[in-house]
Amino acid sequence: MAAVPRVLNVNVGVLGHIDSGKTALARALSTTGSTAAFDRAPQSRARGITLDLGFSCFRTALPPQLGPGPGELQFTLVDCPGHASLIRTIIGGAQIIDLMMLVIDVTKGMQTQSAECLVIGQIACQKMVVVLNKIDLLPEGKRQSAIEKMTKKMQKTLENTKFCGCPIVAVAAKPGGPEAPESENPLGVSELIEVLKSQAYLPSRDPSGNFLMAVDHCFSIKGQGTVMTGTILSGSVSLGDNVEIPALKVTKKVKSMQMFHTPVTYAMQGDRVGICVTQFDPKLLERGLICTPESLHTIHAAIISLKKIQYFRGALQTKAKFHITVGHETVMGRVMFFSPAPADFNEEIQENVFDFEKDYLYQEEYLSKDSKSSEENKENDQSEVQLPRQQWALLEFEKPVTCPKLCLVIGSKLDTDIHANTCRLAFHGVLLQGMEDKNYVETFLPKLKVYKLKHKEGQVERVMDDYSVIGRSLFKKETNIQIFVGLKIKLSTGEDGIIDGGFGQSGKFKIRIPDGLKPETKMLLTAASKKKSKAGKGDANKEDESSKNDSAQPVTITLLFKRYVFDTQKKMIQS
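== Selenocysteine-specific elongation factor ==
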């Protein structure tokens, strides 16, 4: 029996700004439409745009770089929607893309969404081809120079991205536009196919691990069962396996499978497959995830490691809300940023694990070159701003999400005006630890050792004796000073002291100085209080003036301690 020629599947994401002609390009490239292909949703046809991830494919001979022997290279085109409000769908599709085609309208160049697609590509994909579409709209005489000009412009745009130097191909997917007769042949498409073949590589596929598949289409076949088509994100699946549909909380047995209209018994990561299981209502699962039973968790909060997206304008603030895309769901979530303790800023980056033994420093915002705290350092003339090598965030979701244990997380501000010319993707990261318990605030967060540094300042009111002074202005009148007793303080003159207890009713307190006051400190303080008593003999107005002069050189008291954000007892800790 002759060896079955192997078919190698490469997923090509077709991304770009709305109306750049992505669907027309996919149609021109494609010969075999898969079930989800080409704007099948009625609302999509009505709007004339792609709403969901459309899929179709074409096959060519296996190019030499992918090994000898008979075989075919199958390109599965994932036509991603370009409408800004649909960016959620693109992010969902980005996790299965091996190669990206960024479609640019040659008459318009880079547009908002093309920039967002570029960002998603950099996060989720290794290789890219830029396609300049609609060259038929350029007058023939000037066409070549216009294409060259736009090619140079695109090369410049890509200079500082990981796609620097990627191929740029000019085509007209549908000369004459959507209304033109089908007899019009596309321009440049066969050249584009050659470029795609040259860019194809053997994606690293791994059949081990839990089965996880992104379903993008679901329908029932009478007498057979319900078919779910989609792309396998991880692991593998065989005939007879049980698969879980977490959204419906049911487990189903795999009755039969097809890959592009051919029955198969096994499929693995990266494959595009239709899986038929025992009957259920397909309307319940238009798209979503299916998996090895119990391999996904549903979480209410998560710890992620993250990086800010450089094109996002503005700071990433703690307590702000973002649209968080985790696995295949997008929900609103609130963030709290934290970094290593300052001494650990240069520690090696920990990939895919989170260490609960360590202390972490709370941050009001994600630290970056342009964040507030860096600005302040610049003003204080510290030219070199120290940034940590790794930063984390605690995400608290408004409603629980179901996702794999380690997965890509993207934070965006999707409520920004669609037509505003800004990138709405704010950060991307990896989910390190999910919290499945609804009461995670009580059960889980106290394990997270994120602390705030507290800094309080007061002044010495007067000397009591060589070993003690009275302080003021460190606490409010109503503060319970008892809880601060025993904490260490420092005087601006250099002495170390310990808070001994309250003094009177107005928030003043007594400080013990174990090593005694220096003679010069005593003189300074006695001089100050003499001035005061002198002024006291005059009338009240003078006293105000004198205390103004006096406060030019007061002795200040500094109290430093740290407090863990999730410590229910609010203990104050000094090293």
